[in-house]
Amino acid sequence: xxxxxxxxxxxxxxxxxxxxxxxxxxxxxxxxxxxxxxxxxxxxxxxxxxxxxxxxxxxxxxxxxxxxxxxxxxxxxxxxxxxxxxxxxxxxxxxxxxxxxxxxxxxxxxxxxxxxxxxxxxxxxxxxxxxxxxxxxxxxxxxxxxxxxxxxxxxxxxxxxxxxxx
Length: 166
Description:
Elements: H1 2-16, E1 24-32, E2 38-48, E3 51-60, E4 63-75, E5 82-95, E6 99-100, E7 108-109, E8 112-126, H2 128-131, E9 135-148, E10 154-164
Antiparallel strand pairs: 1-2, 1-10, 2-3, 3-4, 4-5, 5-8, 6-7, 8-9, 9-10
């Protein structure tokens, strides 16, 4: 039984092993596809093992927002430094200078606050082992569910380029 348990643990470690190839990275992330698209400054920091927090602060024309995602990252074993991740989180933001309500286009507001719940799945590639430059690329897609003053349902994606701090 001990040999079986040891073998199972070893196999599971290969299957679910994580590949945290950096600790912290900062850069820019462009968000698209949603009603409040745009981009911003992006920070990704691993807090324990494969668990990371990703914060994007920015906005677009007539709005500001902040998105915080809790992500779980794992190796793809396809290329050195290439990982996949899933995450959950939320976006809070504000619009100004007049904007039509995203659910009821006939309602006009001068300013307002919105809140969304987000989920993502994506790829994160640390290029440092490949090109010897501390650079990372990421791309993700996922749904967004509006809770306050936002569309009830949406789908978006984002691309990030980050400098790896370690």
